[in-house]
Amino acid sequence: MEAAARTRPERGQELELVVDALAYGGNGVARLEGYVVFVSGAVPGDRVRAVVTKRKRAYAEARTLEVLEPSPERVEPRAPGHPGTPWQVLPYERQLEVKAEQIDDALRRIGHLEGYALEPILPSAEQWRYRNKAEYSFGVGEDGVLVCGFHKPGSWEEIVHVEDDLLVSERANAARRAVLEWCRAQGLGAYDRREHHGLLRNVVIREGRSTGEVQVRIVTSEGELQTDALAAALDGVADSFFWTRIASVAEVTTGGRTEAVMGENQLRETLGGLEYGISPEAFFQTNTEMAERLYGVAAEYAALSGWERVYDLYCGMGTIGLTLAPRAGEVYGLEVVEEAIGDAIANARRNEIDNAHFFAGDVRLALRELVERAGRPDVVVVDPPRSGLSQKVVRRVIEAAPKRIVYVSCNPTTLAPNAAQLVEAGYALRRVTPAVDMFPQTHHIECVALIERADQMRAALASIVAFALLAPPAAAEDLLVFTKTEGYRHESIPTASPRSGCSARRTASP
């Protein structure tokens, strides 16, 4: 114990370390007499000089100050200094290997799972300029000039200017530069993240990869902005322009007051043969080409025959559910964000899909009532946030007793315990596509898992137990229905489940 304590470095101490692995999250792993140090800015094989930024009993965190001896695996970076491409110093094939290893490791080490088929990783169609959306921050350069780029790693106030962002297209870069040049000409200042004053916060650039449309949204503090003049500067560069005003001191790009200044209210994009309208603040996968591959894997795992009832949980604007709808009997999507449900309904109508129904509600609270009204699902697709499914949501899914669960995950460390909980309830993890690589040059991961009911008796018992563990739902009194012409309106809840058309409903909390 005393020996271990002596090896723990102090915060601020400089160390010479040899990195031998990559941890999930992208940091290098080094060892100091058995004590683990996670090192940012380093890859396996590097010998580095690093400064300790955090110290815990079991591990420390450090930041690379200098690469003393580079790894044999290192390659020359194509975008030196770009904070959004930390893995660009690794060959792309090695990036894919690491991602597959990390997913397999999480499932075995965290979930204690085995017996599944780990399938080949799907590399990205493009290794650079693949993003359809990017968010940039305004800041002040060393010379006092307004800059626009990304936060320096480890800093909440220093902005690294990016002239040509190699993760987005040339046209998207041109739109960002047009905004920056206009703001400089007007003498506008960046929001000071320490003093909490100033106007300019962020600019969000979105592009329809199949349509070529470009959408610009500038995010500011409360104040005045000559939006007509900025729209004129963007003429011929962008197809639509929005202004979002945020009063909060937090650096966020959503939740404020957004108004359309120029162009259409939605960006048009095509995915898997379907056309989507994307609102300025709506979530849409940032790699359009690989999203199509991702949904293809989800459809393969769902193995639909044309009669099944499918639940699409955390459905967002309906992309997965609408992709599956032509192969299913009926699809029910559930999402807490009402605006996203409005987009899902509009997208269903746009593509003349009439067997998809979308509901606004918290999965944790609304899933039981959806089962009561629509019937038990044959297949459940979940695409949760990075935090994964809560234990209560997992119990809700077990209670619904689907034959098959398709789990789309952006975090294997939360997929693993969720899958383990389902296996305990009588399901089996069958197949895992370890990565549909949506994010080349980064540590970010997107994977798909197929979980099927293995022990029907055990699954039925688990469903009964899950039902008993959860409080019975209170009687619902009203329903929030969305229509394109009337917006949201309240109605009394019908006793029959909806079987045709599309409606957005907020179910009452149990």
What does this structure look like?
- The chain is of the alpha/beta class and 510 residues long.
- The protein folds into three domains: 2-69, OB fold (Dihydrolipoamide Acetyltransferase, E2P) (Beta Barrel), CATH 2.40.50; 133-270, Beta Barrel (OB fold (Dihydrolipoamide Acetyltransferase, E2P)); 271-491, Vaccinia Virus protein VP39 (Rossmann fold), CATH 3.40.50.
- Helix content is 26%, strand content 29%.
- It contains eleven helices and 24 strands.
- It has helices at 2-7, 92-109, 170-186, 227-234, 288-302, 319-324, 338-350, 363-374, 391-400, 412-424, 456-469; strands spanning 14-22, 28-32, 35-40, 47-55, 59-69, 117-118, 133-140, 146-151, 159-161, 200-207, 214-220, 240-245, 257-262, 267-271, 274-278, 309-313, 330-335, 356-360, 379-382, 404-409, 427-433, 447-453, 479-483, 487-491.
- Strands 6-21-22-20-19-16-17-18 form an eight-stranded mixed sheet, sandwiched between helices.
Distance between the termini: 50 Å
Major sheet characteristics: 8 strands, mixed
CATH superfamily of the largest domain: Vaccinia Virus protein VP39
How would you state the average pLDDT, rounded? Answer: 88
The number of domains:
3
Overall CATH class of the largest domain: Alpha Beta
Question: Number of DSSP helices?
Answer: 11
Q: What is the tally of beta strands?
A: 24
As a whole number of angstroms, the C-alpha radius of gyration is 25 Å
The CATH topology label of the largest domain is: Rossmann fold
Catalogue the unreliable spans. Answer: 466-510
The portion of residues assigned to helices is: 25-40%
**CATH-derived architecture of the largest domain:** 3-Layer(aba) Sandwich
Based on CA inertia axes, which overall geometry fits? globular
What topology, given as strand order, has the largest sheet? 6-21-22-20-19-16-17-18
Alpha-beta content class: alpha/beta
Strand percentage, roughly?
25-35%
